[in-house]
Amino acid sequence: AEYHQAVCYYRAGSLSKADKAITRYLSSNPKSSSGRVLEGQIAQDRGNLGAAEQAFRAAIKIDKKNGSAWVLLGNVLRKMGDKTGAKEAYRQALRINPKDKIAKKNLKRL
Fold first, then answer.
1. Which residues are CB-neighbours of 66 under 8 A, at least 6 positions away?
2. At a CB cut-off of 8 Å and minimum separation 6, what does 14 contact?
């Protein structure tokens, strides 16, 4: 229930409430890859790129085949100026899903 609550708050733009809900969820579900992804998205939207990177890397550590986490990690690394890291993240996403349009588009931009 807490994960879905966090998603609802996030979609509604209530980042502070979403952050509290996902923190509660992750305290009892630390190995949730999707929870870590949402944690990263919230951190990124709040302007905390370092925390976002950490969360996306945690999601990938839990599930190396999480293509969304790789794309989101690439986006954060690109914003942080790490083009090499971003390219590698997008390439990993494309290894998982060769048809990932976002990864293809963002890789071409670099």
1. 33, 37, 59, 60, 96
2. none
